[in-house]
Amino acid sequence: MRYRLPEPYYFEQGSIGIVLLHAYTGSANDVRMLGRFLEKQNWSVLAPNFAGHATFEPLDILNGGNVTLWWQTTVTAIQQLSKAHKKPIFVFGLSLGGLFALRALELLPEVVGGGVFSTPLLEGVPASLTPLFQQYAQKVYQATAVTEALQMAKLAQIRQQLPQQLAQIQQFGQLVQTDLNQIGPKPVFIGQGGHDQVIDPNQAKQLQQRLTDLGSPVDYHWYAEAGHVITVDTAHHQLEADVTAFIKRFENKKEVLI
């Protein structure tokens, strides 16, 4: 069986620009359905692939990707929309992507709002990521007919290298958490599934309270039956409607979006 690699996308429509960022071990496919839905609202949507992702080799994430490159991908995507005269610009991220969406809200003035879906922040990188990464790698190697001996060697390499990258992500998350006050009056969307199998779903409520205390308008949504990847599971239709309402609510409120 031949597999097609996930590709980044840019759906160019109206003047509003939206960047969608995918999860760790994921790709732009994580947010493709959401992107198509937002495109139908006559909005321009750009979803890049983070460096090292969207390949048939999980080790590429560790060898070809890092926090610095992923942040640059985020900045480049926002700059692309800005150069195309898209305005206002919103940035949303799933899981790991949410950390970079929040960082963009903190640092980039052209970003007027955005949010996170199932994003670990206040409690840091979840311990579940280590076994989940290895399970993901095993599935990829089995699907691409990597020999058992080579699989074992590659998985051993992953076990050796993964802790360093997770430590980088943890450090970046702590930086984002420290600078949450820089988001200021920009509105933040928070979406969280009640059956999240990767992170503690209670983090979302804690993040809502933290941002509210800092003076940021928060649009909080709890999807009781949803898992971690809420952009593609049973909650995705409601999520799409909620994100659309959020953008429509704040697109013209200049007093909030300065």
Write down the overall mean pLDDT: 94
Report low-confidence residues grouped into runs of 5 or more.
254-258
**Rounded Rg:** 18 Å
Strand order of the largest sheet: 1-3-2-4-5-6-7
Overview of the structural elements:
This protein is α/β, with parallel strands linked by helices and 258 residues long. It has nine helices and seven strands. It has helices at residues 32-39, 59-64, 67-83, 96-107, 129-143, 148-178, 202-213, 236-250, 254-257; strands spanning 9-11, 17-21, 44-47, 89-94, 111-117, 188-193, 218-223. Strands 1-3-2-4-5-6-7 form a seven-stranded mixed beta sheet, sandwiched between helices. Helix 4 (96-107) packs parallel to helix 6 and helix 5 packs antiparallel against helix 6 (148-178). The N and C termini lie far apart (51 Å). Mean pLDDT is 94; it is low at 254-258.
Which descriptors apply to this entry?
alpha/beta, 9 helices, 258 residues, disordered C terminus
List the helices and strands and how they pair.
Layout: E1 9-11, E2 17-21, H1 32-39, E3 44-47, H2 59-64, H3 67-83, E4 89-94, H4 96-107, E5 111-117, H5 129-143, H6 148-178, E6 188-193, H7 202-213, E7 218-223, H8 236-250, H9 254-257
Parallel strand pairs: 2-3, 2-4, 4-5, 5-6, 6-7
Antiparallel strand pairs: 1-3
Helix pairs in contact: 1-8, 3-4, 4-6, 5-6
